[in-house]
Structures are given as structure tokens and as C-alpha cells.
Design a protein that fits this description.
The structure is a homotetramer. By secondary structure, chain A is of the alpha+beta class. The first copy, chain A, is built from ten helices and twelve strands.
Chain lengths: ~400, ~400, ~400, ~400
């Protein structure tokens, strides 16, 4: 477990390495957080839920950090306002790194001893939590640097996912009474993935791969962003208010050529790559335009478990038709970590799969990602489905 | 059908009768509409979807009304901005009544002939549509007059629903593979109620009656509005932003006694009556505090079809755990009325049952009402449920 | 004094006569008030500052009206929120008229006796106050009906001011050490008009008449609304935020012809009439474009006292270069009416003259009208000036 | 001139020296700018108005900087949105320093030659411009670090102004026909300070020193922030909206002791020091409470020229009763720098004197500083005045 701890912690720091102190300090919108905050908050998580409670004699690095780096845990005390995270210039990046080292050392000591299962669970949770923030770190800093008219690259060495290519095929998925939800014997999973339960599915087909940029260009050219009848009412209002004309991070150069801003900087749009940085409203409108629909999360999970789908987990998160609500029999984790997932089960839509920014080994078939339907700054795309009869 | 047409139309006018011209003109928030607008919009519906298309030689009452009284039908042309409906002082109430008479006479002529089934459907839809606006008329004007510090009664003769009384019992509902959705042979139902389809339900229990004001007072006294851990994250943010301390239309008099504003005016709160004017966030927090949960809409429908539940359809609408999304195989109606329901199937939660303000004969067991989870101005309450296991 | 009281009171009611109950109830923006509110507030003024204090045995018409119809007098107690005045459907127009009658009768009784000077002053103030609201009533209802896409006429019999015609001449005004301010012996004047005091004026010239619509059209055609260098920084921000392209109440018909909405309804723009419904920012930008400037209020007053200027007081209010600040030695009136003028002497600019909507006999040479520099709904225009040197 | 250039440029860099890269990057409100932006913008000023136009062969450091670092010069081309200055993480602090060096070297070459008077004026303007930004740099970073709940010191070595001590005396100022405005023969002054002109002043008295913190505490204790009758109407609305209870940067510790946040960090409030970080609304309310008033700018200037006033120019800026408007005969500078002052002459109030943060040698007796009346983040205080008769 020490080794895994070292590996996950090191990955966060590698993600921050190409960024300057200024890059790591700013917050470009209330949904996003500074890189530095992600580095500190994930550290606070171990300090608060593990070291502070189970490590006798542990001394907190700085008593003010509990206020600054608690995200949303009401039970863990008051905290700095989320939209003001970009106002915290001190502690500096260097002090945050020192904070990480302090907690790292204490955690290695703790892990060097015989760790009982409840603590092992919390360590594992801390690591999965840190992996979630690793993905957010990438998308948040991408959003932040996109505000700069110079469009600087966050990480010149970043590599986009490989395009699948070819036509999408519509495959028959398993139907009837199926079971979904991560099996209880899985070593680690989030509370929102269970309990495993039965769902009735009518026959359907699902696409072998996500929708591509090239297909999305046809939607744009067909007036997809100008036709209210394709959109949900709330979606059209959002499109209008924010003047969406294309996915986030797309722009046209002087010759009308489409460019895409990625962590590697601005580059010509690859028509064969999966479309990303679209919100649920856009995904839903596209599907309607295409004469299809989004899959439900149960369809997605049942199909992904049995069919030869491409780009399941390392390309783009895939919006589903399902609102993010508790599974039948859902119970939040006991104790302080009970706030982790349950309180967000409203107004959000489920995404399945995983993206190029999801750390390897993090997601599962039963993994439920979720965002409000107007959010576009994640690596989010879509896979089409349709009724079979 | 002429008789039914007369009855429904007359009911709208009876609802408006106790209101002054000023009462009928104002709009107290973007969600609400002036009484006068409801009277005109329901009239426009027949004119646009029936008379203008199927009655040869029909002359519109006033060509400007199509712009003023279209609500949200993109396919029916441009329209006046919803939040500005209260700015329309002319046509006057008297002119709107004249508009109603004009359309009424033409409709009676149309209905006096042999009406083919597709037109019969549109007439029936127009009547159900008008009934929906009858309920909105009552809740909208209640909200409007509530803005007046004098708290004038909208309709001094209005009668509240009768309290059920007694303790609620938790009853076992039908489970396993059940069917829900309004059966296709039902003479009229909204597109969102079908198709009838199978759903798997784990065992559960459901309360014999809705939650009462007295039970809600205990929630308040127990600090229900002060404890973030009971609330969804978005719900707590809304509670905080709008400073909710009690249901809408409740206020304390100088002696701390709770009063409730209803169409009949301000009166002492009846502890045995069903609680109403709560939003989904409040219903959900209450259920969590009570150690229970809201029923899903499938549970509600299956239970209401078989169990002796009280106050199913004439007291308060009952929030469910279900997001308002299309049923499997859902298809919007063809043609212009296709915008009726489908485009609102996001960010809203399903309510089941019916309220004291729902016109008799309007709702059905399979009826799906829906509002955003922060809306409180309808006659909305809750019925508890729990897992049976 | 009884006769004058009757005349002024009657004029308010004549202004409201062409308006429906709905017209009189709505409020189209926080700056404006419903007609009905003006009728009631001016009545409350006599009740509060005269009858309630000096008429033994006077019974208030309705104790709730003090809350509803106090405008901004902190010392007179709490009051209904200004932006919510349009939410008051009751008392009805008829009840407001009854309120007026109640106070009218009591005032006539009071005026029928021997009235000491301090009371005479308050009566006179009440009448001037009511005249100010008469002008606001006209501009507020014009703004309200302008929200209606049907552009109904407020008062079909309304007559615009007569155009002056001809070229404007630039006239030399009195300079050196001059005196301005309404002389203390004037029977009635507002506290803000005094004390009379000395001001040093460098030589200047002032236009014989206000700027016309025709001249404003040339400003539009020359790109006046598109050239930031002509505008104050705050003015350009306002122009941009509200997308001003022409004065308020101007619109182009399908053929590009300019129309103007007035109390008499929509009619072709008269190029010879004085431009109106422009804010200070627009007046200032126009003057800069024309190579001139606005007069200071001292220049305006000194010139108007001695030169043969046209359209001084019955056409449009004329923006000046002067911020509305207290004169040297200014003291607000003693007592409750001390809040009348003084607390608005910041962020506002002085207008001089009077408009077509100003009741005859209301304004004086020394009269100081004032509005924030972005306000456009009054009958506001401009007269140019320049340095003579 | 080379020497002076070096001195002023060096002072900017010394001010930034105690700040981290993160401190220099953030923007805490639209009124404020990042330190890094101040360092770059003052550099852009020389590049744009001098080197680019008068230095043959000059190569701009980076063509993107003109867009990023233009503040508000419409005539100098498009620019980055002011409220988004904190989103610019790149160029980094180090790159901005390199930009400064690039321009510095070019400027020294230019100054090493024979400089004609028009260029000398622009150099001098650039230096005064940079000095203005030096003061803003201090106040902006103070505001930024004040957002941090840890209240870190911007500059631990910062020294507050020395308290004057003793009672304020009310001194008779020069009255009658006086002259104000910076004399035309002054080597450098801003266009808004002239032309020198005559003003008539009635007799008045002016305080020998600014109001102190101790005096302000008495205003607080007397309920000054709770009494609307002391405030301008717009001021009371602002006080209420922003919940002002004390000057900016004041806070009470757990024992109720008043602390003040300064560039040196949080320290007990010195009752003998001049009050600072108050807006015009507060200054005006205080003066009314004290039975006095603010001086006009003409009174201030005439008095400061002749009387032995304390703390004229090195303690706090002093709000005056005067709106910031052009002097009679004012003409903006010709050319691109014409936008420097004139377009802000609305909605702002004049401050006179100078503050502890004003670079030595920058201000003059005739210097006109100005801010909107609700701004509190500058070193702003007040000096009382009163009518002499």
C-alpha cells in the first residue's frame, strides 16, 4: 500500500510540474479550483480523515489549513468560500509542497505499521479521491489558461487520445432483467455505485464508438446550434445566454479553420477524434438531430460489460440519459465521509466510462461520474443509442 | 363534447371572477403569469392549434394576440418574453373576455359539426391544457397577492382540503416486475405518461397519507432548516440564498403563532392538514430527517393503484424521488403540440397525485406533474416511503 | 388657497382619467411608480405632514396606507420596497380615489380656517410635490406602455410641444461675478434652490434653442453611438450594456423610417422638435461631437434671466454640465421634510428649465431638477454652450 | 532625466520585491489590478506613446503585449477586459521583468540623446503615470491579501504615517474671489489641474488636521452606521448592500478590540492616526454627524496654499465636497493621451492632498485625485470644514 500511495501522490506532483506558480494560483470560475488548492486539499483529506483521528501524536502542519482546504464537508467544520479559492496567494506553491511532504511522511509511517481494514478503506478512499482531483486539476488549469488570449499550453507533452476511426456500428445490447451496480466484493468502489440491483431493459442498440468531431461539425453545419426544437427548454436558454456555437475550447482561425485548445495548446481540430467538452444539453440535442438518443446508464453498463465497445474508458466521459439519483437501497458511507457523494444526487446527469485525463486504474465499469447538464469544461462526449424496436 | 367544452371554459372564468382588473394584470415572478394571460393563452391555444388550421374562413380575433399569448411554442412563431407578461396592460381584462367569447363561439360551431378523431384529440388536449392553467391561475394569483403586505384574500369562498387526521401507516406496496404508465386505451392522456412499460421494484413501504403541518412543525423545531447535513448540496445553497425557514406562505404573528396564507386569506395554520408549498429540497430534507425517503414515481403509481391510500388526488401534489425523464420508448406527439411536454424533461422532479386546485377529472393515476426542485408556489407536499427489506 | 388646492388635485385625476385600472397598477422599472401609487402617495403626503400633525381629531383613512405610500422618508417610518410598488393590486384604483376624497375633504376643512404660515408652507409644498408627481406620472406610464409591443397610446389627446424651427444662434451670456439661486423673497421655492449666492463666470455663449431631432439624426448618422472617444467612460459602458442606438422611445419601422412613441402613441419623428428622452451621457457626447459643451447651471440661469432664449420652460428639461450638489450655505428644511431634496445631492446631474409635462406654474428660473446621468425616461433634452473667449 | 527615469522605474520594482509570484498575479476585484499588470502596463505606456512612435527601429518586446497591457486607451486599439486581468498567468513575473528591462534599455538610449520638449513631456507623463500606478499597486495588493483569512503582510517593513495628535483647530481660510488651478508655468501637471481660474468663496473654516481613528470610533459608537438620516440616499443603499459597519480593513478580534490591516499586516488600531479606507459616503455622513461638512476643492486648495495645515500630502487623501468635473476652459491633452483624465469626469468626487502611498514628489497643491463615492480601498480620509458665518 505504501508503494501505491507513493505512486498516486507522485502523479499529482508530476501533473503540476509544467505549471508556474501563477498558473497554479488562479481560479477561472467557481466550478474550478486552483492547482495549488487541489494539491493541498487532497493532502488535507488524509490529514483530517486519517492522521488527525488515528495517528496518536500527529501534529497538523498548520492549523489554518483546515479552514483553507476543506472543500465541502460540513461535518468537518467551517471553510473558505469556494468561489474565493483563487484569492489565496499564501500559502505559496512551495509551502503547499512542504505541506504535502509533511503529510506524506506521516502517512508512510502509518502505512508502515499494521493497518486495520477500516483505515485501509480510508487510505484507499484518499487515493481515489486524489485521483479524482488529478483529473479536475487538468481540466481546471485547461480552463484557466484558455482565458488567456495567448492560449499558452499547460503541458506541451500532453498526448490526445488516439482516434478510433471508421463508421460507428449500432450493436444490440443485453436487455430484459439485468443487474447493474458494482459488485459488493469489489475491493474498492464509491458508495454511489451500489448496491447492485435489478433493472428491466427494453431492447436497444448502442454505438460501437463515441461521436467524433467530424460528426459534430456536420451538426454545426446543419444549424444544430440555431434550431430550438432540437433542444431541451433549459438547454436552449443556456445556449442562448452563453452564446454557444461549438464545443468549449473550439475556435476558428482567420481562415475559418477550426482549432482546438488542449493541454498541449492550440492545434487544428482532428475530425476523427471523439468530440469532447460538450455539455449534456449539447449531447442531447445532437442525439435528437441524429434521430437517436443517449443510452441510460443501465444500458451503458450492461452493454459495456458484454459488447466489444471502443473507447469505453480512456477517451471521453459519455453522457447518459440518466439523472444522477441514488440506486435502490443506496446508503451513504457512515461517518464524516458520508457527504462524499450523496448530497450531489440532484440536478446532475450521469456520465459513464472515463477519459484521457482519468488516472489509469481509477474508473470501473460501474463508476458513476456526474455533472450539471450545462457543464462543458470536463473531457465529456457522447455515445449514441436507440430503441431496438 | 360541446357541454364539456362549456363547462371547462366556464370554470376558468369563475376562477377569475373574484379578482379585480389589477389582480389579473400583475406578474409576481417569472415563473408565474397574470390571470389575464392565462385566460388569453388558453384561448389562443384553440385558435392556433384548431380554428386557424381546421376551420375554413375563421378570422383571428386580433393578429397581435399570437405574439402576446404564445407561451413557449417555438414552432408557432415568435412570442412576448415570459418575464414581461406583467407589462401587458392592454388588451384589458374586458378585451380578453371578448377574445374568449370570439373563440368560444367559433369553437361551438366547430364542435356542432361532425368532428374527426384527430380534431377531437386536439379539443380534448385544449381542455386539459386549460385545466392545467386553471391550477396555475390559482397558485399564481396566490403568489401575487402574497406580495402585498396587507395579505388580501384572492377568493374569500375558497375551501382548504379536509385534513385526514390520525397517524400515518406504512403500507407494503406491490413489488417485483410491475407495469406503470397510463394504458394506451385510456381516452386521453399526455404523451409523457406513456408508453406503459415494465419496471423492477424492490420491496418498499409507503405512507397511508401525506405529511402534515404538525409533523412539519416538529421538523422546524428540531432545526431542520439549520442542519446542512439533512440537505442536498444544491438544496442547502438555495435554502441559504433565499433564507427559507418554513414553507412558503407561512408566517408568524406577533405572538409567534403560525399563520398560513391561502386563497381565502391569512388564517391560523391547521396542524392536521397536509403540508403544502414546500419544494423538493425541503421534502427530501424532511424525509431524511424522518429516517425515510420519498417514493419513486413507479412505487407511487403501483401503490396508488392497489393500496387504500388517503389523499391521493385532491389534497397536495406529492414529490417523488424520480427525476422527470422520458419513459422507455417515449415519443412526443407529432406536429406543433410536440413541444408540449418533452422539452421540460430535465432538471425537474416528478410529482404525483393532484391537489385541491386541480380541476376534478383532470388528473389520472399515471399523471406526471413536474417542477424544478426549488419551486414552492404550487400546492406541493410529500408522502413518505421506505425500503421494506 | 382652497381653489388652488382643488385645481392641483383635480389635475392629477385628469391625468389618470384615460388610463385603465391595469395601466394604473403596473411598474415597468424600479425608477418608475404605478399611476395609482402616485395618486396615493401625494395624498399620503398631506395626511402625514399636515392632517396627522395639525388637524385635531383627524382619522387616517387606513392605517396600512402609511406603510404602502411612504416613498423614502426614513423619519416617517418603515415603508414598502420601492421596486415592489407594482405588486400592490389592492387598494384598487377605486379605493385610492376614495382615499383621495377622504383627504381632500379634510384638507378643505383645514384650508377653510385661518391657516398659519408654517402650515401654509406645508400646503404649498404638498401642492408642488403633487405637481412633481404629475410629471412623473406621465413619464412613468409612458415607459410602462412602451413595454407593450402593441404601443398603445396613454392619452390620445396629448399634444407635443410646438417646434421652434430655424437655426440655433449662439448668444453671449452674462459673465463675471453673477448671482444665482432663487431669491429668498420668492413665495415658494425648494430648499435646494438657495441660498442665492455669487458665482464667477468666464465669458461664454449659449444656444437660443434646444437641440432638435433633426440635429440628433445627424449625430446618429455620423456614428455618434459607435465612437467611444466621444463618450465619458461610464457613459460608454452604459451605452454598451444597454445597447443604446438612439434616444429612448425611438424606433425604426420596416422601411427604416424613425418613429417616436409619445403619450399620444407612435408617430413619425418630427425633425424640428427638440430631442427628448436622452440621458446626460448622450447629451454630453452630442455636445462633444458638435464641438461645444453643455452650459453650467449658473450659466444657464444667468442667461435665461437676461437673454431671449426659446423653449426655456415648456419643452424639454435641459441637462447641464453641473453635478447636483448643495449651494454654498445650503441648509435642508427643518423637520420631517428635511429629507426632501438634500439626500439626493450625489451622483446626479442638474437639469434646468421645464418640460411639456411640467404643470404650468410649477417651475422657476432657479429650479433645480436632477437625475442620474443614465436616466432617459424623462422629457430631457439639451441646449448647447461654448466658451466665448 | 535619465537619473530620474532610473529612480522612478526602480521604485516600482522595489514595491513588488516583497511579493511572491502568486501575490503579483491575482486580481481581487474589477477596480484593482494585479501587481504584475501594473509593472507591465506602465512599461507599455513608454513603449506605445514614446518608443513606438519616436524611436526609429524600435522593436516591440512582444506584439501580444499591446493587447494585454493597454488599460483603457480606445485610440490605442483593442485590449484585454479589465475584470479579467487576474486570468493572465503568462507572461510570468519573470517575463514581465524582462519586458521592463527591454523597454528600460531602449528608453535610456532615447534619453541619452537630445530630447525635444514634446518628447520630454511624454517622458515626464510616463513617469507620473508610473507613480500613480505605484500607489495603486500598494492599495491593490493590500486589497488582494485582505481576502486571505490568514491576513498575510504585503510588506513587513511598511511604515504607517506618523499621527499628528492633539485637537483639530478650525482655521479661517482665504475667501472672496480666489484663484485655483495649477499655474501654467509649472514644469509638469495633469491637464485636469488647469486652467487656473477664478472662484468665488464665501467665508469658511477648515480643520488643521484630518479626522482620526479615535474620532471615527465615536461615530461608530454613536450609531453612525445605523442612522439613515446621516447619509445620502445612494450612500445608505450602498452601506446596506455591502453591510459596512466600519472602515475597510478594520476588524474586531475576539475581545472586541479593533485591529487594522495594513501593508505591514494586522495590528491594533491607533486612535491618533488619521482614519483611512473610508469612501465619500462615509466621509459625508461623518461630517454631517459632526455638525460640519467637507471642504470644496477650491476651499481646500486656497487654504492649503496659505494656512499651516497638518498632513496635507503624506498621510491620507482627503475627500472634498466637489464633484470631479472639468474646470472652466478645460481642454484635454491633444493626441492619444487625451483620454488620460477627461473621460472620468462624471460620477466621481475629488480628493486632495496625497497619502502615505503617494510617491514623494508626485502630487501638487493643485493635484486632483478622484474616485467614485463608494470606493474604499485607497488611503482615503477626510478633513472637516464649516461655513464661517
Amino acid at each position: 500500500m505504501q508503494e501505491r500511495y507513493q505512486a498516486v501522490r507522485g502523479h499529482s506532483e508530476r501533473l503540476a510540474a509544467p505549471l508556474s506558480a501563477e498558473d497554479q494560483a488562479i481560479q477561472s470560475m467557481p466550478d474550478a479550483s486552483p492547482t495549488k488548492w487541489h494539491l493541498a486539499h487532497t493532502t488535507w483529506f488524509y490529514e483530517t480523515f486519517l492522521l488527525g483521528r488515528f495517528e496518536p501524536g500527529y501534529k497538523v502542519c498548520n492549523p489554518d489549513y483546515a479552514f483553507l482546504f476543506n472543500s465541502y464537508y460540513e461535518a468537518a467544520g467551517p471553510r473558505h468560500a469556494r468561489p474565493a479559492r483563487g484569492m489565496i496567494t499564501r500559502p505559496s506553491v512551495a509551502e503547499v509542497i512542504a505541506y504535502r511532504r509533511h503529510v506524506y511522511a506521516a502517512m508512510l509511517r502509518l502505512l508502515g505499521r499494521d493497518v486495520p481494514p477500516d483505515l485501509r478503506f480510508l487510505v484507499e478512499l484518499g487515493l481515489h479521491h486524489e485521483q479524482q482531483h488529478q483529473e479536475l486539476l487538468v481540466t481546471d488549469v485547461l480552463h484557466a489558461l484558455a482565458q488567456n488570449p495567448l492560449k499558452p499550453a499547460c503541458d506541451p507533452g500532453w498526448r490526445p487520445p488516439l482516434p478510433i476511426g471508421g463508421e460507428a456500428r449500432m450493436l444490440d445490447g443485453p436487455s430484459g432483467l439485468v443487474e447493474i451496480g458494482t459488485p459488493a466484493e469489489t475491493p474498492f468502489y464509491f458508495d454511489n455505485e451500489g448496491p447492485r440491483h435489478r433493472v428491466w431493459l427494453d431492447p436497444y442498440r448502442i454505438a460501437s464508438r463515441p461521436v467524433t468531431n467530424g460528426e459534430w461539425l456536420r451538426f454545426i453545419e446543419a444549424g444544430g446550434y440555431a434550431q430550438p426544437l432540437l433542444w431541451m427548454s433549459d438547454g436552449w436558454a443556456a445556449r442562448y445566454a452563453e452564446d454557444w456555437q461549438a464545443p468549449l475550447h473550439w475556435q476558428q482561425d482567420r481562415d475559418g479553420r477550426w482549432m482546438q485548445f488542449s493541454p498541449a495548446g492550440l492545434a487544428p481540430l482532428d475530425p476523427d477524434a471523439s468530440v469532447r467538452h460538450i455539455c449534456w444539453y449539447e449531447a442531447d440535442a445532437f442525439a435528437r438531430w441524429a434521430g437517436k438518443r443517449l443510452p441510460t446508464e443501465a444500458e451503458w453498463e450492461a452493454a459495456a460489460a458484454t459488447l466489444p465497445l471502443d473507447a469505453v474508458a480512456d477517451d471521453v466521459w459519455q453522457w447518459t440519459e440518466s439523472a444522477y439519483r441514488p440506486y435502490p437501497g443506496y446508503r451513504p458511507w457512515a461517518g464524516l465521509v458520508g457527504e462524499y457523494n450523496g448530497k450531489f444526487m440532484i440536478n446532475t446527469m450521469v456520465l459513464r466510462g472515463g477519459s484521457v485525463a482519468t488516472p489509469p486504474g481509477h474508473a470501473r465499469l460501474g463508476y458513476r461520474n456526474f455533472f450539471h447538464p450545462d457543464k462543458r469544461w470536463q473531457f465529456t462526449g457522447l455515445r449514441l443509442a436507440e430503441n431496438a424496436r
